[in-house]
Write a structure and sequence with these properties.
Blueprint lengths: L2 H10 L5 H13 L17 E2 L5 E5 L7 H4 L7 H13 L19 E5 L12 H18 L3 E5 L1 H12 L16 E4 L6 H7 L4 E6 L4 H5 L5 H15 L1
Parallel strand pairs: 2-3, 2-4, 4-6
Antiparallel strand pairs: 1-3, 5-6
Helix pairs in contact: 1-5, 4-9
């Protein structure tokens, strides 16, 4: 079993955050009427994809009736319904739709994960809950060593900035989230103790609005804007 598979087993068994444990399991018991005959995942959702990926995608957290139901990132809700067609158009996945684990979806040169692994009430994890999850994300970064990190939304952006720029005076204040922005992530800017612990490699950070229905239904994030993100990600790999 690979180190990434072992990490995912550890993620799935995590019970560090009592509020999140209670909520994810309550949702899995009570279910939404449309999914009353389905068995909900109801556990932390691990990352998935190509373990040798050069592109790492970081989202926010599982949706209560999306990933918390299906057990796979961005699967079974409106966010995934917007994400996967865009990834298909860009050539990062083999099919444009994702409805459940085992539906044949394959990521190409990409691994998808999240800042938080459990569905939070109101889609709002606390800072403490995100801090509890951050070591999982750090270990994924160290194992995958991506060349491009695409963050979907400000919370994912803040987590990556925190990982790379903690203990580096002044640098974090120069990195501001905006859709389409890119930044160089240089591990030699890390404090030496974090550099030796995380063993990170240089990467490019690429920012995008989150493909939530709140953003896509209002036009804050359009299909054209999203396609440009993935075109840019491919260009950065070259």
């Amino acid at each position: 079993m690979s180190k990434l598979e072992l990490l995912n087993r550890e993620i799935i068994s995590c019970r560090k955050c009592p509020r999140l444990v209670a909520w994810r399991e309550q949702v899995a018991r009570e279910k939404r009427k449309a999914y009353k005959d389905e068995e909900y995942w109801g556990k932390p959702v691990p990352g998935f994809g190509d373990p040798k990926a050069r592109v790492l995608v970081v989202g926010l957290a599982p949706g209560a009736h999306g990933s918390n139901r299906t057990g796979r990132q961005f699967t079974g809700d409106g966010s995934g319904g917007f994400l996967y067609p865009a990834l298909f158009r860009a050539g990062f996945v083999n099919q444009p739709h994702s409805s459940a684990r085992g539906d044949g979806l394959v990521l190409r040169d990409m691994y998808i994960t999240a800042s938080g692994r459990c569905a939070p009430p109101g889609n709002k994890p606390t800072s403490e809950e995100l801090d509890n999850c951050q070591p999982f994300l750090e270990r994924e970064l160290a194992l995958i060593q991506p060349k491009v990190i695409v963050v979907l939304g400000r919370i994912a952006f803040d987590r990556i900035v925190r990982i790379y720029f903690t203990s580096v005076h002044g640098l974090s204040s120069t990195v501001k989230f905006s859709h389409g922005a890119t930044f160089d992530l240089r591990p030699f800017d890390l404090a030496q103790d974090r550099l030796s612990t995380l063993n990170l490699q240089p990467a490019t950070l690429l920012c995008s609005y989150h493909p939530s229905q709140q953003n896509t239904s209002t036009g804050k994030l359009t299909a054209r804007m999203f396609d440009e993100i993935w075109t840019k990600a491919k260009a950065l790999l070259k």
